[in-house]
């Protein structure tokens, strides 16, 4: 079928199999161009492996360190006349490339919050790898059914205590407007967001993997967090999602206790703001990202997900020494984003930004381009007028 983008707000309903494969190949090429990561991971479980930072982690482990990878994700498979989701096609392309390179790669498509998928992952590790030496936790989800209580929790993106008004952008139309977001009405919103995006499920994974004896001695596990600039604090770091990130970060010492007898260690890495399916859903953040991209590109310090994760592995997690941590015990690869000169320039541009000057003072064009890339569109070497086979299988899930 001929697949064109069908955009509804901050999501694209269609994805292109050849375009997503091109996106995966470009990320693999970047990792290979950086050379091998010495003493990198060898057997890796990535939870949330199909898009964004999780996909970049899987690619970096496989192609930077020849690792065997098991990826867990929740994606819609392709069916005749119905393209699959981008994460489905990404995973198909990743596995094909890994197989061609002689690397083990298998995937599980299902709800990572469930006990069932945890059991499946454990069985697969036991059967094929024995144990894993790295577990990457990179889920981003709007909801979670709690495996013990059965309660369905939905996360919300709201400020706490006070309403928040600021600029936001419709990045397709290029229109800036003011947005006012009302604060949470009760603590339930905070509790639900923590239940979805906090650290409990990460802990459940590590507990169950450990109990099944599938964690290697010296295991590392890492989850991803975000801080960002003060201007997004009310909606991000001091809002409901920030409370969930506080909870995720507070899980690190708990996991370190749990992993002590395996000489294992857990980390949270604070990453840079980037265009992903999750971040485009947060009000205010896309305008910040498009100004940030402009400033960082001009300074020659821009990074995408793959550059961030390659640097995390090569210069933080696998240097042979313990990584430097901030005063709250976190790894920082948002160091370039948070540089004073970068933040000062973004803050100045933020004040100036209007619909009229947006194309000129921001990298809204780059934002849009990356948004379309997430779904496999806007690649110059893919013919979007041509018929393409939409029914692409993920090799390890086939049949
Ligand atoms: P993403 O939306 O690109 O990826 C989310 C992944 O989770 C996908 O593989 C998806 O299939 C999987 N997933 C979602 N629900 C699932 C479920 N129930 N079961 C199994 N898999 C499921 O998100 P992104 O942006 O890569 O986020 C990953 C982590 O990085 C999150 O913790 C996020 O807060 C964090 N982060 C994101 C930043 C950004 O700017 N995008 C910045 C810093 C941290």
Automatic annotation (TrEMBL):
Domain Trans-2-enoyl-CoA reductase catalytic as annotated: residue spans: 82-318
Residues annotated as binding NAD(+): 48-53, 74-75, 111-112, 139-140, 245, 274-276
Gene Ontology molecular functions: enoyl-[acyl-carrier-protein] reductase (NADH) activity; NAD binding; trans-2-enoyl-CoA reductase (NADH) activity
EC number: 1.3.1.9
Superkingdom as given in the UniProt entry: Bacteria
Annotated active site: 236
Catalytic reaction(s) noted: a 2,3-saturated acyl-CoA + NAD(+) = a (2E)-enoyl-CoA + NADH + H(+); a 2,3-saturated acyl-[ACP] + NAD(+) = a (2E)-enoyl-[ACP] + NADH + H(+)
GO terms for biological process, alphabetical: fatty acid biosynthetic process
Ligand binding (substrate): 226
Chain's role: Involved in the final reduction of the elongation cycle of fatty acid synthesis (FAS II). Catalyzes the reduction of a carbon-carbon double bond in an enoyl moiety that is covalently linked to an acyl carrier protein (ACP).
Alphabetized NCBIfam families for the sequence: EnoyACPredFabV, PRK13656.1
Name of the protein in its database record: Enoyl-[acyl-carrier-protein] reductase [NADH]
Source species taxonomy: Bacteria, Pseudomonadati, Bacteroidota, Sphingobacteriia, Sphingobacteriales
């Amino acid at each position: 079928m001929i697949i064109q983008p069908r955009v509804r707000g901050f999501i694209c309903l269609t994805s292109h199999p050849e375009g997503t494969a091109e996106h995966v190949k470009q990320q693999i090429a970047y990792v290979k161009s950086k050379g091998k990561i010495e003493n990198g991971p060898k057997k890796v479980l990535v939870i949330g492996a199909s898009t964004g930072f999780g996909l970049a982690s899987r690619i970096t482990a496989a192609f930077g360190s020849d690792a065997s990878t098991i990826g867990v994700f929740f994606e819609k498979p392709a069916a005749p006349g119905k393209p699959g989701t981008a994460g489905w096609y990404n995973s198909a392309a990743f596995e094909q490339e890994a197989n061609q390179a002689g690397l083990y790669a298998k995937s599980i498509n299902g709800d990572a919050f469930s006990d069932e998928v945890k059991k499946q992952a454990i069985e697969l590790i036991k059967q094929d790898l024995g144990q894993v030496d790295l577990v990457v936790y990179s889920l981003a989800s709007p909801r979670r059914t709690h495996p013990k209580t059965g309660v369905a929790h939905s996360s919300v993106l709201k400020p706490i205590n006070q309403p928040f008004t600021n600029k936001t952008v419709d990045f397709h139309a290029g229109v800036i407007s003011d947005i006012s977001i009302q604060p949470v009405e009760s603590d339930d919103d905070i509790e639900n967001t923590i239940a979805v995006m906090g650290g409990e499920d990460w802990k459940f994974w590590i507990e169950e993997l450990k109990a099944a004896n599938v964690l290697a001695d010296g295991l590392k596990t890492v989850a991803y967090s975000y801080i960002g600039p003060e201007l997004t604090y009310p909606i991000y770091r001091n809002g409901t999602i920030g409370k969930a990130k506080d909870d995720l970060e507070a899980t690190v010492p708990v996991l370190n206790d749990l992993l002590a007898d395996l000489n294992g260690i857990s980390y949270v890495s604070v990453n840079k703001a980037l265009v992903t399916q999750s971040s485009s859903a947060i009000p205010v953040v896309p305008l910040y990202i498009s100004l940030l991209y402009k400033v960082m590109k001009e300074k020659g310090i821009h990074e995408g997900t793959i550059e961030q994760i390659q640097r995390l592995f090569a210069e933080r997690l696998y240097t042979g020494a313990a990584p430097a941590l901030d005063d709250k015990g976190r790894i920082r690869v948002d160091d370039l984003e948070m540089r004073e000169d970068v933040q000062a320039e973004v803050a100045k541009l933020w004040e100036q930004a209007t619909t009229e000057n947006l194309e000129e003072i921001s990298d809204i064009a780059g934002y849009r381009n990356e948004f379309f890339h997430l779904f496999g569109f806007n690649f110059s070497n893919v013919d979007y007028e041509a018929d393409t086979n939409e029914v692409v299988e993920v090799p390890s899930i086939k049949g």
